[in-house]
């Protein structure tokens, strides 16, 4: 039997927030639980950018009973009128007595100000209950709102010897079904999915989300310096998700027109031989892409890593060894000379998916 305490209610609020991952676009995921005299009287989650915040949903459910209650919120209540009114002021207006907050909002427009509004109104405020969990939950939002760059999660699925296909190019399947379902969940939780043109040519993937329940389809981004993406490929023809091609100034104009006629966006990223990945990320951020799941081949993975554009790495290893000198590897870049120069993953978490091993970490770039 779980004890009823602040952590119990906050855990519930975090679960509400967690379940909405992937559906709030550039906004954070937030959950709120309102409790009075041992009863939950309101619960809410922020469901979609531009709609009511979690606190407002929960307060609406609580009605007049909100007076004298305790509100559990996974993120500091907002302090300004954005697309919706300020939640901190609403909590004051509804005469809530105590507000328990998991973590501060990274949004500079809010950070600390929401807490101050509550304190100034004489509300008892506690910050930091299940804080680590709450910070991780909104890592994508926090990066985008502070750096104006998309949060990039790199995912690879390889054999134990780091191969993403055999020497003949066979790659179906490396990992097991449980791992593949997890990968589809990751797609659902990101705003966009990014691959290189080589992957499109070799595998013709549809790059949609396929789960036992219907999932959200992320925007498809193809890095294609010379616009070699076949017009009849699934990523171009399938209209269940938007597709963006990243290319360079050297791409032939008439080819750009062909793609545009298909409703595909083409973004020019510099005039080098290859797409300038920093410009690409900046341009995507400007177009409102806040999170990207990178499912690249070895070269794109390597280039993104070298450019220090990857925030989080998810390595899925099937317990297989395929060998083959020409079999492609999950990271392909010029490499470092010394072990001491290598990129180290921090804050590691590991999972076992039916004997596929999943390693999650955050690269520490020196
Ligand atoms: C909260 N509760 O449920 C959310 C918050 O444009 P708006 O009005 O939706 O405001 C967006 C900002 O509000 C967003 O950048 C973040 O700082 C905060 N989101 N705050 O108290 C919520 N979604
Ligand atoms: Zn708010």
TrEMBL record:
Pfam families, alphabetized: dCMP_cyt_deam_1, RibD_C
Pathway(s) the chain acts in: Cofactor biosynthesis; riboflavin biosynthesis; 5-amino-6-(D-ribitylamino)uracil from GTP: step 3/4; Cofactor biosynthesis; riboflavin biosynthesis; 5-amino-6-(D-ribitylamino)uracil from GTP: step 2/4
CMP/dCMP-type deaminase domain: residues covered: 4-126
E.C. number: 3.5.4.26, 1.1.1.193
Cofactor binding annotation: Binds 1 zinc ion.
Catalyzed reactions per annotation: 2,5-diamino-6-hydroxy-4-(5-phosphoribosylamino)-pyrimidine + H2O + H(+) = 5-amino-6-(5-phospho-D-ribosylamino)uracil + NH4(+); 5-amino-6-(5-phospho-D-ribitylamino)uracil + NADP(+) = 5-amino-6-(5-phospho-D-ribosylamino)uracil + NADPH + H(+)
Top-rank taxon, per record: Bacteria
Cofactor: Zn(2+)
InterPro entries: APOBEC/CMP_deaminase_Zn-bd, CMP_dCMP_dom, Cytidine_deaminase-like, DHFR-like_dom_sf, Eubact_RibD, RibD_C, RibDG_C, Riboflavin_Biosynth_HTPR
Record key words, sorted: Hydrolase, Metal-binding, Multifunctional enzyme, NADP, Oxidoreductase, Riboflavin biosynthesis, Zinc
Entry-linked PROSITE patterns: CYT_DCMP_DEAMINASES_1, CYT_DCMP_DEAMINASES_2
GO molecular function, one term: 5-amino-6-(5-phosphoribosylamino)uracil reductase activity
Described function: Converts 2,5-diamino-6-(ribosylamino)-4(3h)-pyrimidinone 5'-phosphate into 5-amino-6-(ribosylamino)-2,4(1h,3h)-pyrimidinedione 5'-phosphate.
Similarity comment: family membership: In the N-terminal section; belongs to the cytidine and deoxycytidylate deaminase family. In the C-terminal section; belongs to the HTP reductase family.
Record-linked PANTHER family: 2,5-DIAMINO-6-RIBOSYLAMINO-4(3H)-PYRIMIDINONE 5'-PHOSPHATE REDUCTASE, DIHYDROFOLATE REDUCTASE FAMILY PROTEIN (AFU_ORTHOLOGUE AFUA_8G06820)
Protein name: Riboflavin biosynthesis protein RibD
Species name: Chengkuizengella axinellae
